[in-house]
Design brief:
It is a single chain. With about 375 residues, the chain is α+β, with helices and mostly antiparallel strands. The protein has three domains: about 200 residues, Sandwich (Jelly Rolls); about 40 residues, no CATH class; about 90 residues, Malonyl-Coenzyme A Acyl Carrier Protein, domain 2 (3-Layer(aba) Sandwich), CATH 3.40.366. It contains eleven helices and 19 strands. A hairpin with a 2-residue loop joins strand 16 and strand 17. Helix 6 packs across helix 8. It is globular. The protein starts with a strand and ends in a 5-residue tail after the last strand. The chain binds succinic acid (SIN) and cobalt (II) ion.
């Protein structure tokens, strides 16, 4: 079964009342979250490409954090309770998991980051903390108790174990138990602590991309340098300075203004489309990771976007795939628009928008592994 999710309220109402503002619990709004199971997750955490963590501890601690890749022995020596395995960017490695992101079209595609999945034994948690990003916490298996606290900021007192950045004396304002299919949305900065109530607790976390001004300015500067703008500072209206030794505010303002003026719409588009289309998973990911599931010859196979392929369109309708620019002909645009708008494509959807230019590009992208045929018939 493919993963699905539907907001419990109209999308605009969610954005206006909750997005980036306050938590929301939605009951029975997700399904098809049965894969991956615990064995698949622990298997992923053995891989060197995969970013994973094991956290042990409960209550007042002590807490322990280990980073993957793990080996089978690490799991053999675990206690029965109070530990959690967290695997980052599972959507990149298991294309079926990435299909959940098709249900987040109430936000622009570039705003989505990745899907982390945790597997916890009874009592397992990552401790009281806050995240800097919005997150949808979706209960896939078992029950998890969520304690919700106040909005935090960089001054919020933390415990001494600075690796985990746990909050000191988190005040609990609300408490909910989530079962399979229930979803908790949290805006950035809200204190939370999710504790597994069962011995087999799996939670998916859909996280979001929020580049910092420093990231954006760096990319704009790189792109401006690449575009070869070589105009120099000008000051034809100069008056005699009152203090020739100092850099005056008016000059700071003029220098900055002229620098920003060099950032043409084309430079802005290229810098941001490149930054926002870069994948969240490690570069050089082997595109054969879920090859076993791919069966192009099967009549039940559907064209899908590989989970590690990030594809967005810019305002000219050109494609940006994993940080690379693909200028498109007008004839190719309808097909590529379909490919960028969703992750799974039926023949009935593809056929009306496919013409030679688009088909050639799609063939090239299939050859490179960015798109593939996936057989869903075995698990449905
Ligand atoms: C978890 O899945 O155990 C933790 C996720 C979170 O609190 O952000
Ligand atoms: Co969190």
């Amino acid at each position: 079964m493919r993963p699905t999710f539907k907001l419990a309220l109209p999308a605009q109402q969610f954005l206006t009342e909750y997005w980036q503002k306050k938590p929301l619990v939605m009951r029975q709004v997700a399904s098809g979250l049965d894969h991956p199971d615990a064995d698949t997750l622990s298997g992923l955490s053995l891989e060197s490409d995969v970013d994973s963590r094991l956290i042990t501890g409960h209550g007042d601690g002590p807490w322990n954090l280990q980073h993957g890749p793990f080996d089978e022995n690490d799991f053999r020596v675990l206690p029965r309770e109070n530990w959690t395995l967290l695997v980052q960017s599972v959507d990149c490695f298991l294309t079926e998991v990435s299909m959940l992101l098709d249900h987040f079209s109430f936000l622009p595609a570039w705003r989505l980051e990745d899907i982390m999945i945790s597997y916890a034994s009874r009592g397992g948690s990552v401790g009281p903390h806050f995240d800097r990003y919005d997150v949808f916490l979706m209960q896939a298996k078992g029950q998890r108790r969520w304690k919700i606290g106040d909005h935090c900021d960089p001054h919020t007192p933390l415990q001494e174990n600075d690796q985990l950045k746990l909050i000191n004396n988190m005040k609990v304002r609300d408490e909910y138990v989530l079962g399979p299919g229930d979803v908790l949305y949290l805006p950035p900065g809200v204190a939370h602590w999710g504790i597994a109530e069962d011995s087999d607790c799996i939670t998916w976390s859909v996280g979001f991309r929020a580049p910092s001004p420093v990231d954006i300015l760096g990319r704009l500067a790189d792109q401006a340098a690449e575009s070869g703008g070589d105009t120099l500072f000008t000051d034809p209206d100069r008056t005699v300075p009152s203090d020739a030794a100092s850099l005056q505010p008016a000059d700071i303002e003029a220098l900055t203004r002229q620098a920003f003026r060099a950032l043409t719409p084309d430079i802005q588009r290229r810098a941001l489309a490149e930054l926002l289309s870069e994948p969240s998973c490690p570069s050089g990911l082997d595109f054969d990771v879920d090859h076993d599931h791919i069966a192009a010859a099967s009549p039940d196979a559907l064209l899908v976007r590989h989970g590690a392929t990030r594809l967005i369109l810019d305002d000219q309708g050109d494609a940006w795939l994993n940080g690379n620019h693909w200028p498109l002909t007008e004839a190719a645009k309808p097909l590529i628009r379909l490919l960028a708008g969703q992750r799974l494509y039926t023949e009935a959807e593809l056929q009306p928008v496919t013409h030679d230019d688009g088909q050639d590009l799609l063939d090239e992208w299939i050859e490179a592994g960015y798109f593939a045929y996936l057989d869903f018939s075995t698990d449905e």
